[in-house]
Amino acid sequence: MFLKIKAILLITCIGFLTSCKSETTQQAATKPPVKSYSVLALQKMSTSVSLEFPATLEGMENVNIHSKIDGFVEKIYVDEGAFVKKGQLLFTITAPQYEQLVRTSNAAIKSAEAGVESAKLKIEKVKSLVDKKIVSSYELQEAELNLKSSEALLAQKEAELINAKVNLGYTRITSPVSGVIGGLSFKPGSLVSASTPQPLTTVSNISSIVAYFSVTEKALLGFLRERDGSSVKEQLKSLPDVKLILSDGHEYPATGRIESIFGLIDAQTGTVRIRAKFPNKESLLRSGGSANLVLPQTLENVFLIPQKAVTDLQGKKYVFVENEGILRSVFIDVQEASSGQFYIVEKGLSEGDKVVLDGVQFLKDDMEIKPELANASEIYKDL
Questions:
Q1: Cα angle, residue 64 at apex, residues 58 and 66 outer, rounded to 5°
Q2: Is the separation of the CB atoms in 80 and 160 below 8 Å?
Q3: List of residues 6+ apart from 318 with CB closer than 8 A
Q4: For the ranges 75-89, 196-210, 230-244, which has the lowest average pLDDT?
Q5: pLDDT of residue 8
């Protein structure tokens, strides 16, 4: 009986062990194979980036044209958008009162001249009487003073005539600079005066255009620090030419130069304004326009990774780094490179890190892979 029970237990154990071995073999057979993924070993390198900044465009001179006298717009000699030269007639103003002042001043001058001549004759008459001791010298002195008074009155009337002619000249409004006419705010017959806040028009000298843009204090210090020169003026000279991307997306054919950096930093925005100048021989650019200014910059000792290797999670970017076949996700700070196919890694990775290049949407932390080292020269060949 005992032998029979022992045999049964032995058979049961053997069956159990066989079953466990079979399950283990089955699990091993169903475990998915480790997949191969391309990885890039990071090395520091040099690259160029194009920094873009919104810019506003202005002519070299934007002159508001105002009337200096009270009157009515008589005639307009130009049209909106027309090119005018310095000194060209733009408007005439009807102001009859100034014509009358000129005529009145001319008459007053003639009267004052007659007064001067009369005073001179009186001096000659009194002088002869004084010489004969018929009258006292006091009367001669009085006559001389009357002459000086008459001469002063004449000078006053001549000054009034000059002032009247100047005011009459203001009835003809000419362009102070060569440029393009803006909008015409008033029509013939409109009443204008020196106190009218709205200008008759604006003349913009657009032979050259200046682009104003703002950068952060940090960015300004960054690209100036990389420039040669002991002063800001010398550093500006060493900056590369800048470009403009127009509002239609096309690149402006001529390059420009950064000319000046404003002396004050805006305390509210933490930015500083910069002015760049562009030639505008074809008058393609207009004052008041907008564009994006492109500033090229060379960066040394940075990491470049393909954009396809980066995953975006709620505005944060991360990559998968492989170490001995095991993956871990690493959040990174990046800046887009000029080519548009790579990111410049500013923070998060170190030299020698192996970044997975493709299939990142299927990866997760602690996942096992079979790494295949990618050819770096092949990846960066288009840079």
A1: 175
A2: no
A3: 310, 311, 329, 330, 331, 332
A4: 230-244
A5: 54
Beta bridge partners of 214: 273
Other CB atoms within a 10 A radius of the CB of residue 55 amount to: 23
Separation between Cα atoms, residue 185 and residue 211, nearest integer Å: 26
CB 140 within 8 A of CB 131: no
67 SS3 class = coil
Task: Report the greatest alpha carbon distance in the chain.
Answer: 187
pLDDT value of residue 28: 45
pLDDT at 380 over 60: yes
| pLDDT (mean) for 190-213 | 92
Average pLDDT value over all residues in the chain: 85
Structural contact between residues 349 and 332, judged by C-beta atoms closer than 8 angstroms: yes
Instruction: Give the tokens for residue 175.
Output: 């362009």
Q: What is the pLDDT of residues 18-51, one digit of tens each?
A: 555 544 445 445 557 889 999 999 999 888 777 8
The verdict on pTM exceeding 0.90 is no
Strands (DSSP E) contained in the chain are 36-41, 45-65, 71-76, 83-84, 89-94, 172-174, 179-181, 191-192, 201-216, 243-246, 257-261, 271-279, 290-306, 311-313, 316-323, 326-336, 342-347, 354-356, 370-373
In DSSP terms, which residues pair with 368 in a beta bridge?
326
All domains in the chain, ordered by first residue: 36-50+300-379 (2.40.420.20), 51-60+206-297 (2.40.30.170), 67-93+174-198 (2.40.50.100), 96-169 (1.10.287.470)
What pLDDT is recorded for position 142? 81
Beta bridge partners of 303: 345
User: Of 118, 135, 119, which Cα lies nearest the Cα of 127?
Assistant: 135
Q: How far is CA 277 from CA 48, 207, 361, in A?
A: 23, 11, 46
Q: Model confidence over 7-16: pLDDT tens digits?
A: 555 555 555 5
DSSP 3-state assignment of 250? coil
